[in-house]
Every structure is written in C-alpha cells, then in structure tokens.
Specification:
Layout (H helix, E strand, L loop, with lengths): L1 H4 L3 H14 L4 H13 L3 H14 L4 H13 L3 H14 L4 H13 L3 H14 L4 H15 L2 H14 L4 H14 L2 H8 L3 H12 L15 E5 L4 H7 L3 H6 L3 E5 L5 H5 L4 E5 L8 E3 L3 H5 L16 H14 L4 E4 L2 E2 L12 E2 L2 H8 L5 E4 L8 H9 L3 E3 L7 H10 L2 E5 L2 H8 L4 E5 L19 E5 L7 H11 L2
Parallel strand pairs: 1-2, 1-4, 2-3, 5-8, 5-10, 8-9, 10-11, 11-12
Antiparallel strand pairs: 6-7
Helix pairs in contact: 2-3, 3-4, 3-5, 4-5, 5-6, 5-7, 6-7, 7-8, 8-9, 9-10, 9-11, 10-11, 11-12, 14-22, 18-21, 19-20, 19-23
C-alpha cells in the first residue's frame, strides 16, 4: 500500500498482482487492487477485482462502496445505490458510503433522499469539509435554495480554507444573490487564476492585481476562459479607458479584429507569457467597479461590413425575414458526477413551442449532433437552415447576429455577441442558472434579453409556454 499512498499507481498495481499470484484468495488485496485500478481509470478491471473481493469475502464494506463508485462513475446510479446499501448494512456508520449514496440519489433527482443522506453523514462527521461542500452543491444545483448553499459552502471553507471548489461555488452563489463584493473575492479561487498564479511564481514573479479603484497608467489584460466569458468581462474595459488607462489585450486571436474596431486597445496580441502590469480579464471588475457602474453595458461591438453583406445574401437565399436564429445546447458534459457548465433545452419541446411562428429559421447551433436540426424542423413544422458553420468565424457570427430579427437559445458565445450589438434576444436558462442570469426575471447584465427559465427538477413547460405566447402574433 505504500506505493499507492505515494501515488505510484503502476508500481502498486504490479505489487498487488504479485501478492495475488501467490495468494489468490486474499480478498483485501483484491479490494486494494480494485481501488488502485479505479484510481487510474481502468474501471472494467476495477469492477472485476472488486467483484472477486466480495465473492471471496462478502463482509468487506470498503469493497462494496468501491463497487458503488465504479457504477456511479458510469451513470448506473441504481446499481451504485444497491452497492452502497450493502456497505452500510455491514457498517452503518460508514459516512463515506452515506455520502456516495446521496450523490447518486441527487443524480437521479431524488432530492429528499439526497438531503437526508447528507444530513445523516454530517451527524457522523460534522467536521468533514467535503460533506458540507456536497450539501452546498445539492442546494445550489438541485433544490435552488441558494441561502442554504451559501451557508454550507462557508461551513466547508471554515473547516478547510484550501477547498478551491467550495470558494468558487460560493462565488457563483454570492453573485446570484447579488453579493458582488464578497463574490469577487471568492472568484479568485477559479482554476484559471490559480494556474496563472503558479505559472507566474515559476517564472520568479508574483501575480498581484491592483487594489480596487487603483489602476496603473498602462494595463495588459490577459484573456482567460471562453470567448463569451472574455467578451463579458471586457465590458469593464471602457471604465478603465475613461480613467486614462492605456489597455492592451493578450488573448485569443479570433477576438482581435472585433476588439480592434472598439478603439479601446493600444495593442492586441496572443502572447500569453507572464508579464508586468498584467491582469486576468476576470479580475478586472472588482478593480474598476469603484470607478464606474456595477453592471456596465456589454462591450459595444460592430459587425464587419463585408461579413455582414455576405451573411445577408446567404440569409435571403434561405428565405424572407423575419429571420430567427436558434440554438439549444452549449458547453460540454462533465466527466464528473454532476455537470457544471453544460446547458441544454429539449429540442422537441422547443420546436413545438415555436410551431406556427412565422419566420425563416436559422440554426446557429455549434457542432449539432446528427439528426438534431431535422428533429427541430419536424417539431416546428418548418425548415431549419443550417448556419452552424458561422460559429467557426467570429466575424461571420457577428454579421449574422446583427442581421437576424430575433435570437432564441441557451447562453453561449453568440449570446454575448448579440448583447454587444445591443440587439435583443430570448435566452433559455436551464436550472441551476448560471450566475450572470440571476435567479429570476431579467438579468442586470443583459437587460435587452428576455429569460425563460427551467424550473428545479427539469420543468420547461411554463418557460416554453411563455416563449410561445411572446412569439406568436
């Protein structure tokens, strides 16, 4: 086990297999082998080892718990729960198995069972920061009780101040609740900033953002996160420029032509090597807030004339106005137990809600799956034209979004481009909402956007009924 404890997985696995070659009935070693194989992502082999362990010795609670985790990680939550229950029957005070069972209950939408499970686990281990974090995650992502989520994350941080995920989720909860001063401080725990701080330290420096309201005469903004995120945070750049700060932007070259037309930036580069007077773009808001508005308008963008003309010709070939652009998914599903940034609206229900709306429908869905656009067209009972390739060129996307009469979709880069053009849109907000959309009503960050919100537990009926009412003549 020493090799496993040191993280030398291959060595540890080889040693365990050596022991089993001599003692094939050693159940605890089979269990340890399953633990190690799961740790390196070899789930099928881990399952076989753990099944062998419980076959030899059915009274091993750790092996049953590990079997549950293997099944949980592949989404087989009913099977996982059965294994966690076997572990708890053998060891009723097995707090980790209680938590794991609650996690699977949450994934299955059994929120009462999940809440009960976390509460039971906390009675067993009240000073376990991870348990408080899991409870906060449950309330943030499933029940929608953000006050309880905030309190649980704070409890986790009090017990383990280094728990980065708790700080970051607390930031998102605080933003949604409107507590921006504390939220910006907690947002410093996002992985992009932590990675940047480490990179600067390796280069012999130290990353130190300016104090709120105190800016140097020159500032190099460093891009981070996705294109839409960078555009979002760059809405604070005009406040700094109005205070006679000269700004350069170092980040994704796809943004450079668009940013150049704003007239705000002294230089544009994609060189991301650490430098002086550098500020991560998501650290700009708390620095400039004391100098201007808390909710500045989106960074004003202008479409390239040539790209706009080319898109107008293509739109007219598709059909007459009104042209309505539409998307239904953004982000990627997480490999973990719960998705964080993945957003999706149900295609069939969305199409049914839009059936009868007079429009030429334009799909700007990035990387649509085979058959999705056709399924949407069947539900709308009208053609849906494929403009997904516009996402590959921001100038084309900006020209298209400047031309379309309306926009319907989940929040993505196109939403930020549309906001920068000061054009309205209709945003489908899955539950739990991303913090920029708030918990109800219109977002202060996107006042021209109408929101249609999924209810906790996956209910789109009311939101799509409201969308249909607003769009029909």
């Amino acid at each position: 086990m020493a090799a496993l404890q040191a993280g030398r997985w291959d060595e540890g696995i080889a040693r365990l297999r050596g022991v089993l070659a001599r003692q094939p009935q050693f159940a605890e070693v089979w269990s340890n082998l399953g633990f190690a194989l799961r740790a390196v992502g070899r789930r099928d082999e881990a399952r076989e080892a753990l099944e062998r362990a419980v076959e030899i010795a059915p009274g091993l609670p750790d092996a049953w718990n590990l079997l549950g985790l293997v099944e949980q990680e592949v989404g087989r939550h009913e099977v996982a729960i059965a294994y966690f229950q076997r572990a708890l029957a053998l060891r009723p005070d097995f707090a980790l198995a209680v938590v794991n069972q609650a996690n699977s209950a949450q994934a299955l939408g059994r929120l009462d069972a999940a809440v009960e499970g976390y509460a039971r686990a906390l009675e067993m281990a009240p000073r376990n920061a991870g348990l408080h974090y899991n409870l906060g995650h449950l309330h943030q992502k499933a029940t929608g009780d953000y006050a309880k989520a905030r309190d649980a994350y704070r409890a986790a941080i009090a017990l383990d101040p280094s728990l980065a995920d708790a700080h970051l989720n607390l930031a998102n909860v605080l933003f949604a609740l409107g507590s921006y001063d504390e939220g910006w401080r907690e947002f410093a725990w996002r992985p992009q900033r932590i990675a940047h701080e480490r990179a600067v330290a390796r280069a012999g420096g130290r990353y130190e953002p300016p104090a709120p309201g105190v800016l140097p005469r020159t500032l190099r903004l460093r891009g981070e996160q996705g294109l839409g995120d960078m555009l979002f945070f760059l809405r604070f750049a005009p406040i700094a420029v109005s205070a006679d700060v000269r700004i350069a932007f170092n980040g994704d070259a796809r943004l450079h032509p668009i940013l150049a037309r704003t007239g705000l930036f002294e230089a544009l580069s994609d060189d991301l090597s650490p430098g002086s007077n550098e500020l991560l773009v998501a650290d700009l808001p708390p620095v400039v807030e004391p100098m201007g508005e808390r909710f500045p308008a989106a960074l004003a963008l202008a479409a390239d004339a040539r790209s706009r003309e080319a898109m107008e010709r293509r739109l007219r070939d598709a059909g007459p106005p009104p042209w309505i652009a539409i998307t239904w998914r953004a982000g990627e599903r997480s490999r973990g137990l719960f998705d964080r940034l993945f957003k999706e609206a149900p295609i069939a229900d969305l199409g049914a809600a839009l059936k009868g709306v007079r429009a030429t429908w334009i799909s700007v869905q990035r990387a649509p799956l085979a058959g999705e656009r056709e399924a949407l067209a069947r539900a709308i009972a009208a053609p849906v034209h494929d403009f997904s390739d516009a996402n590959e060129n921001l100038e084309s996307a900006l020209g298209l979004l400047d031309l379309v009469t309306d926009y319907v979709g989940v929040s993505n880069t196109n939403t930020h481009l549309r906001a920068g053009l000061d054009r309205p849109g209709r945003v489908l907000v899955p539950f739990a909402p991303e913090w920029r959309w708030g918990l109800a009503g219109t977002s202060p960050w996107f006042p021209a956007m109408t929101t249609y919100r999924e209810k906790a537990g996956g209910g789109w009926v009311r939101a799509l009924a409201d969308l249909r009412r607003d769009m029909l003549p």
